[in-house]
Design goal:
Layout (H helix, E strand, L loop, with lengths): L1 H11 L1 H8 L3 H9 L4 H19 L6 H10 L6 H11 L39 E11 L2 E10 L4 E8 L4 H14 L8 E5 L3 H4 L1 H9 L2 E5 L9 H9 L3 H5 L4 H5 L16
Parallel strand pairs: 1-4, 4-5
Antiparallel strand pairs: 1-2, 2-3
Helix pairs in contact: 1-2, 4-5, 4-6, 5-6
Length: 269
């Protein structure tokens, strides 16, 4: 292209030729002088930053999350700009693979508890409202289930558990951990909100709630908005490490002490 413009520039001029060929005149002059434009230098520097963020997050982030992370680090860059550079460099995030497992299976025999939250995920203090759910993680050794409880006020995960099954013990262990972090002498009624999965309506689970005077609340079946805060955490962490985590199931199962209260993890608003 440059050779063609050089051949005919004396007769027609550079700008008319570039306009006819739908090419950039500035790019032609840059190529002719050998100087790099400020934009190309900026794109190269930004691409390096994108690669750093991508690698630091186990190559799981797509362009939306890479862009959000760059914003948090003070990089003033457009979302489409990040998407373009990642597309040019072949940088891709992790994608869900295979058919998703169904985790919420209601028990048709158990009497349904009411929804006491009504999608109002606010609290005036800690230990007033917890929301819970569980999902699955893909590991090198197979699928594992992950149950958690979030304190709505602090947005902290106050209880969690990993297991290779989806039995009631999974959510029950997460509940017991959360109850262990509850401040002693709490006189305010605590509300624990979940979906209608059979694990949450099991007798052992509801008995522990009753023993600690925790009021149970459940959302409707098939409506993610009734447990939106917990669902948003699942979506935020997905696909994330679900596809590429090197988590060892044996290491988790051998950790007899389990997670401690110091391991609480913040959930984004």
């Amino acid at each position: 292209m440059s050779a063609f413009i050089d051949e005919h520039r004396e007769r027609f001029g550079v700008e008319p030729i570039c306009q006819t060929l739908d090419v950039s005149a500035s790019a032609y002059y840059q190529r002719a002088t050998g100087e790099r434009s400020a934009r190309s230098v900026e794109d190269e520097q930004l691409t390096c930053r994108i690669r750093e963020v991508h690698e630091q997050n186990f190559e799981c982030y797509g362009y939306p999350r890479v862009w959000h992370e760059l914003q948090r680090q003070g990089e003033q860059v457009g979302r489409d700009h990040v998407a373009r550079l990642m597309r040019q460099e072949g940088i891709r995030g992790a994608k869900r693979r295979g058919k998703p497992w169904r985790t919420t299976i209601a028990d048709p025999v158990v009497q349904k508890r009411p929804d006491l939250v009504n999608r109002d995920f606010t609290a005036t203090a800690p230990d007033r409202l917890w929301v819970g759910d569980f999902t699955y993680l893909r590991t090198w050794e197979g699928r594992m289930s992950f149950a958690f409880l979030i304190d709505v006020f602090s947005r902290m995960i106050v209880g969690w558990q990993l297991a290779s099954h989806m039995r009631t013990d999974l959510v029950l262990d997460a509940l017991r951990m959360a109850l262990g972090t509850r401040q002693p002498g709490a006189h305010v009624q605590l509300l624990a909100h979940t979906d209608q999965g059979s694990q949450y309506s099991a007798e052992d689970y509801t008995q522990v709630l009753d023993d600690h005077r925790v009021l149970a609340s459940v959302g409707s079946i098939g409506d993610c908005y009734d447990n939106a805060l917990a669902e948003s955490f699942v979506d935020w962490s997905s696909p994330g490490l679900k596809d590429t985590s090197a988590l060892s199931a044996k290491a988790v199962e051998s950790d007899e002490g389990g997670p401690s209260a110091e391991d609480e993890t913040a959930v984004p608003a």
